[in-house]
Design goal:
binds flavin mononucleotide; 4 helices; 7-stranded antiparallel beta sheet; 39% strand
C-alpha cells in the first residue's frame, strides 16, 4: 500500500532528531533526519534515511560524493537547529551560515571534513559503508569512526511533526506483576 507523506497513521512513531552534517558539491550542509538509527553496535553502524534518491536532497548528494557524514543527535534545547536544518535545502540556502548567525557553534570533525554541532546529545562521525534505495528513501549506512556523548544532555524527541522533551519516566511493572510474568514464562516455556 501507499501511505504517502503526512498520513496520520504513520505519525505515531517517536524518534530522535539526527542533525546530519556533510560537506561536498553543495558545500557544508546540515539536514534534520528523524529517521536516524543504530543498525549495529559491534561494529558501530548508524543509518540515515533520506527521502528521494542518492542525488535527491543536497545531503544525500554530498554524502554519496564524499563517503562521509556527521550525526549530531539534537539535544532537548536544539529544536531551533532542527527547524533550520529541516526547513530548506542546502542547494538553495547556506544553512550553516544561518546557524552561525544565530550564535550556534559548530566544530570541524576529527575524522571527517564535515562540521559537527556543539552541544548535541551525541556526536558521531561516520564513513559511508553502503547506500540502499528502499522505497521512497535512500538508506545511507555509516560506520562510526569517532563518537562523543554528553551525559548531561537529553535528546530531543519528535513525534507526529511535533517536538517533545523526555517526560516522566514510566516505571517497570510492579513486583506482583513481575512475579506473574515470571510464572507465566515458566508455564509457557516451550518443551524441547
Ligand atoms: C524534525 C525533522 C525531521 C526530518 N526528518 C527527515 C528524515 O528522516 N528524512 C528526510 O529525508 N527528511 C527529513 N526531514 C526533512 C529534511 O530535513 C529536509 O528535506 C531538508 O530540507 C533537506 O535538506 P538538504 O536538501 O539540504 O539535504 C525532516 C525535517 C524535520 C524538521
Amino acid at each position: 500500500m501507499d501511505l504517502g507523506w503526512g498520513n496520520p497513521k504513520a505519525g505515531k512513531w517517536a524518534t530522535n532528531v539526527g542533525l546530519i552534517t556533510s560537506d561536498g558539491p553543495n558545500g557544508p550542509n546540515i539536514m534534520a533526519a528523524e529517521w536516524t538509527f543504530y543498525l549495529s553496535y559491534s561494529p558501530a553502524i548508524i543509518s540515515v534515511h533520506i527521502g528521494g534518491s542518492e542525488n535527491g536532497k543536497a545531503t544525500a548528494e554530498n554524502i554519496m560524493k564524499t563517503k562521509e557524514f556527521g550525526v549530531s543527535l539534537a539535544a532537548s534545547d536544539q529544536n531551533v537547529i532542527s527547524s533550520i536544518a529541516g526547513g530548506s535545502s542546502g542547494r538553495e540556502v547556506d544553512k550553516i551560515a544561518m546557524l552561525k548567525e544565530m550564535g550556534i557553534e559548530l566544530y570541524k570533525g576529527k575524522k571527517i571534513n564535515a562540521l559537527m554541532v556543539k552541544g548535541a546529545a551525541t556526536n558521531a562521525e561516520c564513513h559511508l559503508l553502503q547506500a540502499q534505495q528502499i522505497g521512497d528513501h535512500v538508506m545511507l549506512m555509516g560506520e562510526v569512526m569517532e563518537i562523543d556523548s554528553d551525559a548531561t544532555k537529553e535528546p530531543l524527541v519528535y513525534s507526529g511533526n511535533k517536538y517533545y522533551h523526555l517526560g516522566e519516566q514510566a516505571y517497570k511493572p510492579a513486583p506482583d506483576v513481575l512475579e506473574k510474568i515470571a510464572a507465566l514464562k515458566i508455564k509457557y516455556t516451550k518443551k524441547k
